[in-house]
Amino acid sequence: MTETPTRTTDASTAGSAGTAGTPATGATVALVDVTKQYAGHRALDGISLDIRPGEFIALLGPSGCGKTTALRALSGLERIDSGSIHIDGVDVADVPVNRRDIGMVFQSYSLFPHLTALQNIEFGLRMRKVPAGERRRRAAETLDLVGLGHFGARYAHQLSGGQQQRVALARALVTRPRVLLLDEPLSALDAKVRVQLRDEIRRIQTDLGITTVFVTHDQEEALAVADRVAVMREGTIEQIGTPEQLYATPSTAFVADFVGLSNRVPGVLAGERVTVLGTALELLGDPQPDGAVFALVRPEDIRLTDSGIPATVVASSFLGSLRRTQVRTDDDVLLSVQHEVGTHPQQGERVFITLTGRPVAATPRA
Amino acid sequence: MTTSPVSPPRSAPLAPTPPAAKPAPATARVNDTAVSIGAEPSGRARWIILGAVGLLFVVPILSMVEFTFRDGLAGAYTLDHWTVLFDPEENSRYRQLFAAIGNSLTLAVVTVAIVLLVLLPTMILVHLQFPRLRRVLEFICIIPITVPAIVLVVGLAPVYGVVTRLLGGSVWTLAFAYGITVLPYAYRAIQANIDAVDMVTLSEAARSLGAGWGSVLARVLLPNLRRGILAGSLISVAVVLGEYTIASLLNRQNLQTALVQVSKSDPYVAVIFALLALLLVFVLLLLIGRVGSTRPGRTSP
């Protein structure tokens, strides 16, 4: 486990839901105080991260937060300025990428256009001088693993985007690398294929027990597949924890805001309690100076009730298994409320809301 | 004065309206009435353009062909000018010309080698490691097209003094100058291919799979730059085969200088060789087009 010294949630007890019962055949990975600068800009500002064997870690954050740089540093495609990177306890900071024994899937389709799918998968084995017979057998097996057993003779331009990424995944896996690195592999795919492939990556990773680092800016993707998620911001790890921890107990306002939906509700912080809409709630994360704040309240932590704070319905959206309704309080605070589908408030209808009382994160109000 | 082909003449009589004509779709109406500036020409216009341009090229070539069959100024025709080339007894007359062809082919090979061994690796290196230098490299490569050959020769003459002292006066040394003159053409052809291939990601993917730089180059980059490399090489060959000024002014003999010399004593043979050179370049260009359009697995579903 681990984390930036100051802003972390203890992950030692977090457990790895996804890897429970999975034989840990992957490597341990550790980034220790890694920094990387580009023309004076600190892309990585002393990040430290410990990854357990067979664990699936997602690096999540907005564009420019350093997540891809961290992945590329781990792969060896970027040299780091200081710090160290350990794979199975060995410092690999000076080991070139082709000797790190990693598998990598890129955001853009990176299949070699002049080779068939099968030849693409064989490439890494060829580089390792694996005999031709074994090479073909292993390539075919891995192609089967990603569900494209009949597509071995196709070239990249004869495959769809999703199929190309499956082949790229097979190509990265066939060498049985110690660590699998996924650099936003789903971002170029359409929504349905993205979900299918996301689940497939998770299934294969769990089956193989390979240590995996997955970079994404899509919080839903990160929360859905990862054992632990590291939320990054401006070259640092803001918080690392299980998806449940990040969602329920964000240690900073940034995490609360970035992971899941939050209402920014004006409140007053006094000590460890924030008073919001007349209700005093416990503050999550590090202590902050008293004063005016925005409390970050999840839509499901607000309820439509028969009595409470009066509000007027602005709009209501059906989201399949739930409904999200926007209401405006008489103090002109706009709130998003999540509730079951059976209740269908009409626009302009007067309703009452109450807070469930769950702890909230807060950010100073300028 | 010209009239737009789609604009009806003002005095044209109005055609009777069909009694129950359905209104044409809006898009069709727009196409009928819009001025087709920049639009694709119609089939007939295409043939007219193709015919005009074709005539421009074909007439001189046919004239050359016709000239090679003339028997003096009497108006009769003969095959003698062609058959004499293959007559062993007459061959000695054209030995100089055949030697010049050999020189040109040697120059073509060495020039292509310079392109492949100097220009290509430089372009790949700049693209992968020093992308900021790309504009500088492009500028340098384009310069030769803006410098007249005569100016180039004036600059190269003292350089060739040194080259001759060091490497002798062999004709192949002319390839150093040709390596410069073909730069703009070879650069464009290769760069177009580099732009079409995501070389950075492909090389990173190959490296992550365990490939060293040699393997990345040989197994990934060169196969994917095949079209650009072939096009650049063939264009270089075409440029070298057609070069006259530099060879003439630096007192080297190549196909073009030999043709000029032979034409003074036997214009028929000079024209025959000019035709054969044109044919060779034409075949090379066809080859470029064919190679450029091939793609692995194109015929497969």
Characterization of this structure:
The complex is a heterodimer of chains A (366) and B (301). Chain A is an alpha+beta fold and 366 residues long. Chain A folds into 2 domains: 17-248, 3-Layer(aba) Sandwich (Rossmann fold), CATH 3.40.50.300; 261-364, Nucleic acid-binding proteins (OB fold (Dihydrolipoamide Acetyltransferase, E2P), Beta Barrel). Chain A is built from 8 helices and 20 strands. In chain A, a hairpin with a 2-residue loop joins β1 (29-38) and β2. In chain A, α2 crosses α3, α2 packs parallel to α4 (161-173) and α3 packs across α4 (161-173). Chain A starts with 28 loop residues before the first strand and ends with a strand. Mean pLDDT of chain A is 89; it is low at 1-24. In chain B, 69% of the residues lie in helices and 1% in strands. A two-stranded antiparallel sheet of chain B has the order 1-2. In chain B, a hairpin with a 4-residue loop joins β1 (70-71) and β2. At the A-B interface, β6, α2 and α4 of A face α9 and α10 of B.
Could you give a short description of this structure?
The complex is a heterodimer of chains A (366) and B (301). Chain A has 366 residues and is an alpha+beta fold.
Name the features.
heterodimer; A: 366 residues; alpha+beta; Rossmann fold; OB fold (Dihydrolipoamide Acetyltransferase, E2P); 6-stranded mixed β-sheet; 5-stranded antiparallel β-sheet; disordered N terminus; B: 301 residues; mainly alpha; MetI-like fold; 2 domains; two-stranded antiparallel ribbon; 14 helices; globular
Strand and helix map with partners:
The complex is a heterodimer of chains A (366) and B (301).
Chain A: E1 29-38, E2 41-51, E3 56-60, H1 67-75, E4 82-87, E5 90-91, E6 102-105, H2 117-127, H3 132-145, H4 161-173, E7 179-183, H5 191-208, E8 211-216, H6 219-225, E9 228-233, E10 236-241, H7 243-248, H8 253-258, E11 263-270, E12 273-276, E13 279-282, E14 291-297, E15 302-305, E16 309-318, E17 323-329, E18 334-339, E19 350-355, E20 361-364
Parallel strand pairs in A: 3-8, 3-9, 6-7, 7-8
Antiparallel strand pairs in A: 1-2, 1-4, 4-5, 9-10, 11-12, 11-14, 12-13, 14-20, 15-19, 16-17, 16-19, 17-18
Helix pairs in contact in A: 2-3, 2-4, 3-4
Chain B: H1 26-33, H2 43-68, E1 70-71, E2 76-77, H3 80-83, H4 95-129, H5 134-146, H6 149-167, H7 174-181, H8 183-196, H9 199-208, H10 213-224, H11 226-241, H12 245-249, H13 255-265, H14 267-293
Antiparallel strand pairs in B: 1-2
